């Protein structure tokens, strides 16, 4: 284990968090003050101070040693980085909100950096501006981290990096980067910034104020889902804003590498030749149509446009794991709720800011089943599996099946753990809470539905769910390896 | 496709069902008669007649052609055999119970032959003796079919058969059979008969009448779970009978091949050297202890012995997928219900009469995760996976992961389908109904809990769930291939 490089990268992360806290502090003092704001600004100052201090300590600790980084260092940095960021990011909440346990603050902060969007606050609209800005900003940083940081860190790595890299961006890597990952990381960062700019301006044009536009931009492009209003997007009562939201959620649930490729080369054709994108769009359309039918059938008495928009909005919001709400979907007919639960598991595309198990994994899993089925009665026919004109190796396919099995195990074990912590939580709320956190969605169903929050849970449940968010965000391995004793051997 | 051999084997199956129907008819006329009994006996006569007729037709159809059988013929026979048996077996119910749709009769019959034990009847105790006997007998035949029929049919096959064979009895095959599968099938049949004899006598010794003893023996050794009483095992109010039940459920949830090996060779040592058995026992003990704690904590005010026995009974009953009930576990505290839901998925050991995904698959799936985890930070270390001193090939491991992914897909799709058919069924009832049918358990939770039944569901739901039972019982492939067009090509 090369500790020096780990310390140096952690120093970099804390420097960035320090600057983010400082900018939230600046936003805070730009608005008129009352007591709550004073506390929020102090909390942010304190957080920024601790971040910079930690950055210096890590820099000192990492001043000697080689700069080489291997798999295990990369995994450790990613895992530790998100854990530490969530802890430091909890400081402003802890010091500015009354009667808030540190576990609750950690939950809110982890929910931000992992772009989950589950909240412990029941009254969001009355939080100080500075804190609302910080809360949204953590999601934007988290989203950027997911699409860029993986690539940036991996540009340090040798050829072996592709294993980790392609775990995250399965099947789309080679032709964009041609080995020049750093250029790739910069391009992705640029794309993220352009999408952010477009999104903020679009929100502003629908009539939102600049503060709300920027905060919602932060949480839309990162598919994070935090809002500045207690009622989430429903609070704006603006169809135009909802359509803008639908558009950008859909875009940010797509592979950023694919968007880059589409923009730089063949255009729209690129998208429709991509198996994952086509499946993603297909599921969005099918699920929306299905839920529109159900809502019309159950006759909830709104206008046709509002029903259609509401259904499309919720389907997009859940499948891209954003988690904005315009409707109380926890009160929809059961078939609609079941559909949303399934979409929570699916999630967006690989290489996007969305969570879930990712569309491509399910597509490959499904094809793998068909292959085994054919093998069952034609044992001697062996056909390669092709995804986007590229033949997948057996070990790649196996890796994806194993990922799905791992997700299944984590969900089952988490359901048991949370049911022990929260014996009175009914199974649907429990199951959806685990999915909502693990797959970085935000709201669940039942007692953790879109009108509810996670504030009533026990402190240890909040810590557990917070760690679950980070585990899901980093696709399990980066957190799980932290528990492997052999990772920590000095000279292994 | 060699249709001749398929017809001949189907003729054999229908001959066996005809004799089983005849024996139920004989039991019926041994008891004193009333109107219900008259109808039941007539229904059984009719069923027997149709079975024998079909047997003759199939024999005529299959009189010409080669006797060779390959993978696809074997799969087709197994799939068609269970489907046809369930359909013919529905005749007695349809003709002897008033106002019963054929879909309900098919559900009950499929529930029998697949050893599921879910019922559409709300009042079981008042069913005619002949029908109760037939109902239990179908489970005993189904259980025998699962452990023996696979082996017997596969003894026809060449070397390629091992693929299918080892899918069912993964990891335990070679050293018992040494290629002499027919001997193996006979030995398993003998073991099944001995266990049946011991079980029936044990029940009788606890004070049950012979009729109840034999009927419950039928449904215990097959881990089927049909009872002759509406209250299931609770109706006997006999701790001794419950302990007998616990013993035989546990035994029949074990691999029959392992029991054979233990009996014939090293004894108890064999069992504790077997990874699957040790895990199976470990889960049983852990889950029982956990539920005992929960029941004591929620203080339901029974005696300690009754709480302990009740917990062990329900854990064993659910994990071996038998489904007998002594308690209304749908009213237990949520953590206990969640635990039972998880046990439903686990199921018993491979090569037993139990359903579920099977312990060995989960153990291999779990180990596979650990392997990938190690690979994530030590990409160059490759270690073989050993199960019971045998190295598993990558393709075997992959096959198991794919099976788990397939199970996941079938559960998700079935939840959506059933929620469309039954829009008012709450998610817990829905999910547990799907698990209870697919994994051949019987009772679920909520509206399909141990005190409830499946009678209130729509006819198409019953047909769907009936097919789901067969699909689960045959581990998916034998039913899924029936939908593959290339299976049906005459000369492929
Ligand atoms: K989210
Ligand atoms: K059963």
From TrEMBL, chains A, B:
Assigned keywords, A-Z: Cell inner membrane, Cell membrane, Ion transport, Membrane, Metal-binding, Potassium, Potassium transport, Transmembrane, Transmembrane helix, Transport
Pfam family for this entry, one: TrkH
GO cellular component: plasma membrane
Membrane topology (UniProt): Multi-pass membrane protein
GO molecular function, one term: metal ion binding
Compartment(s) of residence: Cell inner membrane
Residues annotated for K(+) binding in this entry: 115-116, 224, 321-322, 440
Keyword match Protein transport: no
Record-linked InterPro entries: Cat_transpt (IPR003445), TrkH (IPR004772)
Residue ranges of the TM segments: 12-33, 39-62, 74-95, 140-165, 185-203, 243-263, 275-300, 306-326, 338-360, 400-421, 428-445, 465-488
Name of the featured protein: TrkH family potassium uptake protein
Classification of source organism: Bacteria, Pseudomonadati, Verrucomicrobiota, Opitutia, Puniceicoccales
